[in-house]
Write a structure and sequence with these properties.
This protein has about 280 residues and is an alpha+beta fold. It has 2 domains: about 5-65, Single Sheet (N-terminal domain of TfIIb), CATH 2.20.25.680; about 75-275, Naphthalene 1,2-dioxygenase Alpha Subunit, Chain A, domain 1. The protein has helices at about 5, 100-105, 110-115, 220-235, 260-270, and strands at about 10-15, 25-30, 30-35, 45, 50-55, 55-60, 60-65, 85-90, 90-95, 130-135, 140-150, 160-170, 175-180, 190-200, 200-210, 245, 275. Strands 8, 9, 10, 11, 12, 13, 14 and 15 form an 8-stranded antiparallel sheet that branches. Strand 10 and strand 11 form a beta hairpin. The longest helix has 19 residues, at about 220-235. The chain is globular, with a radius of gyration of 18 Å.
Length: about 280
Amino acid sequence: MTDTAMKDAWYPVGLCSDLSADGRKTRLMGEPITVKTGPVGAPEVLNADNEPLPVIIRFGHVWTSLGAPQTDLFTIPEADQPSRKLVDVGVVRVKCSPLRAVENFLDIAHFPFVHTDILGAEPHTEVEDYKVEIRDEEDEVWATKVKFFQPQAAKSAEGGITTEYMYRVPAPTCSVLYKTCPPRPGEWDVICLFVQPLTEDLCDVWPWMALYDEDNTMTELIHFQQMIFLQDRSILENQIPTRLPLDPGMEMPTRADMTSVAYRRWLKRHNYTYGAQLVAK
């Protein structure tokens, strides 16, 4: 594994609520690791040589790195608001590039065609103008003023509404979505995609949410989000090329792809290339 830049990043490797002394055997960027409860009860991650890797506990997940991270893991202030439901959705294994998984999460145009009558529906297929930028101070990709009509924007929604979104990419394999909160106008629901790159063509996806929802149980919220992501999985596993193309000439973007274009530009800027295709084949 030669991608030094991504080696130094933080990655989710397990749920804090699902640890044991025996440990979870998994992989990170091709390297075998074990995620377990340590001797004093705290989570720990060990590499193939049984040596400890750095650990951060945040958003209900265990995070680690194969390298030497120079920065802390990003924060999500909404995670600290006590009235929100913090939903650990679990994990879904997907046969695709970890970068492809994030890019698909940023794609609004597929809503009517993949999540029909839930997140989108014909004839409401047009993506209105929105703003995309790479914020240098935070070193993150942001898309704002995104609006889309949705028949059921959330598990708590009743009837169709025009939903407003903000997309944020704070790390190469993580994306944070802020969207209209039907029960509390003026607030944002937060839906995240944390991706663990097992290899360049295989990943574990850990969705996580911070919601205002007093009507649905945790199980109902988890099932709703799992249903949405499983609809995406079949699309992700059939994309060609398998890895995310970073050469601008390899695919023809449209106006709806502005966030994807910025994400790819940001990846190239930092040499985040694990799971990417750099030249046309």
